[in-house]
Amino acid sequence: MAGCGAPGSPPRQSGPGSTLEEEEEDDDPALGCDGDLEVNPYDGLPFSSRYYELLRQRRELPVWTTKYSFMEHLEGNSGIVLVSGPPGTGKSTQIPQWCAEYALSLQFAHGLVACTQPHSLAALSLSLRVADEMDLNLGHEVGYCVPHEDCCTTETILRYCSDEMLLREMTSDPLLRQYGVVVLDEAQERTVPTDVLLGLLKDVLRQRPALKVVVVTSPAMEERLRTFCGDPPVVRVPGPGPPPQLLYRDPPAHGHVTAACQAVLDIHRRQEPGHILLFLASEQEISECCRAIQTEAMALNPGLGPLLVLPLHPGVGRAAQKVYEVPEESSRERRVIVTHWLADSSFSLGTVRFVIDSGLELRNVYNPRIRAESQVLRPISKSQAESRMQRAAGSLPGTCLRLYSEAFYEQHLPPSPAPHVSETSLSRLVLLLKRLDIADMGQCDFLDRPAPESLMQALEDLDYLAALDDDGNLSEVGIIMSEFPLDPQLAKALIASCEFDCVEEMVSLAAMLTASPCFVPPSTHLEEAVTMRQRALLHPDGDHFTLINIFNAFQQHNADEVWCRKHAVSGEALRLAGIVRAELLEVMQRIELPVSPPAFGTDANVLNIQRALISGYFLKVARDIDGSGNYVMLTHKHVAHLPPACCYLLRQPPQRLPPWVLYHEFTISQDNCLRVVSEIQPQMLVELAPQYYLSNLPPSESRDLLMELREKVVAAEDVPAVPEPLGEAAGEDDEEREVCVLQ
User: Fold this and answer.
1) Strand ranges (DSSP E) for 63-199?
2) Which of 202, 611, 666, 673 has the least C-beta neighbours within 10 A?
């Protein structure tokens, strides 16, 4: 059997009684590059000098001391190996590489190596680093696969991917036969896909004993995972060095963002060496804090050295790599990385000496009773606080400043974060599990079982959408819905567009709704001019149509960045929408769904798009109860308002607000605004929504109006229809419609 060893050492013989000591002994001469050039076993090319430089750094990582133990367990009889250690110890970069060495020793007979990450940005960042360490090309032997971006080829032997992508892969390959090793990294994050994969992979191991599963977690989750996985061998990684100095500060009266900014500036004034990692609650706070620090830094003494402020959250995309850029040795630049929960475990930085922790996070928590999310500002968990503190540990101990008291830590921080499966809508998950032939959710093994109420609501929603048959299995419509990487409601609307001949428009709309919000706040001095230009893109029939308008205009202007800046829209978001659109069309062609020609702008097309939207989003309808913009949801009694960027509020001159609207999202928050709103006629809702859905609505004036309309529709169906002549009235309606011209 072919040998396996650390790249840079001769392949070691594997088999009973073989050891890894020889590998460690043979590595040292290789560092000097004496004698013959060593060849990379993955691509057959000689190692570069950078490879040896990075190998020296890798050997200094705390995880390196556990390599022998880990490889021994991986080669053993246990299907699962549990790796436990604090952040910043090198687990996410080294463990997958060692798994690749193991797979290479078997000539990849059982398959490749996949390493999942809870965050797409982390998968991208880690693949870049590991490709560099392995002296390989990203996109060839090492790749990444995240939603809407697949940087892998047939040559890829180590694939970093988001956990949701691997879970989706199981719908077409339930036993994951192309993989010999699956690494579930950062299992303590408790995302829905990682929790589900933990349960499903236990079942896969029973059917594929040759598969190896490595679960990587923080020490706080070790015991729970050990019990859940059936007492597998555990590899414990030591910490990165002496613990940092821990300081508590009483909660600031003037707000934690201001206090965090002040703490950063105080550290910089003291001229203590080291970069700063600052944890806040949300992306909005990150943006506010970055602006505040940059403004204050301009007034500081230049002799203190430059202060580089770097935001780190999912919205920054590839710019996240800036946190790893190494400043010149002579530079006195200090970096301040401002982040939130994204960096609780990911994005380890060895040069951080100061951690400032606000102790808060802003999360969206789904409430199945009202089918809406609530924005909740809450304390982080004790395990998160410990992980954040560890970021300042190292050979030169740092300092962790907590912007809360020790009493607050003891009394208000829960031991561990809530599993996402208890705070998320489960409709998409249930649809996927049904596709995997898991008819009964009780068959799926969960670390924490979802609440029965959440499961029942998800099943009810899928039933309303006609995704289930009478036996509770996926219907034909449900099977088609599961093919799309979309929420079930949007998938159903896209399928309905085939019936209503508006596929081209609905595919563009689905892509725009999936991509990040396209509008960006303009500079204050340009606000009026930008608003005037944006008005030219508004569509009289609602925000959904405005999104189609913007996408079409972007394409007509050949994705011009100047045009994007003039209209304060995000070119990055619109390019992503183009990628998503191409993916959706590819799925439709693969499953042979009809694609109608474009007809955007005609009255018939507007009606057809509305019909398709109602077919998927009849659960998300609201009515203006007093004519002043107070919209009450049909499914619950919450009152919401139109968002400031809504086309009905921006158009000039102001006109009446629509009495009935369909919306894309609603989150209970400070402003309680609906997101992406378009007017609909209640008659359409009555015609297209399932009768039993309307009957099950909670008692309200809106429900009474709909049931009254329903009775009229039923009565009209019993009477032969008399065609109405198309005369002047129709012409007048057309004249009253606002004309939308792309500028």
Assistant:
1) 80-84, 112-117, 142-146, 149-151, 158-162, 179-184
2) 202
- For 70-109, how does the pLDDT look when each residue is reduced to its tens digit (9 = 90+)? 999 999 999 999 999 999 899 999 999 999 999 999 999 9
> Quick one: the chain helix, strand, coil %, rounded to 5?
45, 15, 40
Residue linked to tokens 């913009």: 629
**729 φ, ψ to 5°?**
-60, -45
Which residue is it, tokens 């390599």?
A: 67
For the chain, how big is the Rg over CA atoms in Å?
Answer: 28
The mean pLDDT of 709-732, rounded to a whole number, is: 64
56-to-64, 68, 102, 229 alpha-carbon distances in Å: 11, 17, 21, 35
Q: Rounded to whole angstroms, what are the CA distances from 19 to 1, 47, 67, 95, 632?
A: 15, 24, 12, 18, 69
First to last CA, the chain: 67
Which tokens is 390 given? 């560890």
DSSP track, 27-65: HHHHHTT-SSPPB-TTTSPBPPHHHHHHHHHHHTSGGGG
DSSP state of 376: E
Q: What is the dihedral of CA 427, 433, 435, 437, to 10 degrees?
A: -140
Residue 528's H or E segment, with its range, is: helix 527-535
CA-based torsion, 720, 726, 732, 737: positive or negative: positive
Place of tokens 């998800």: 458
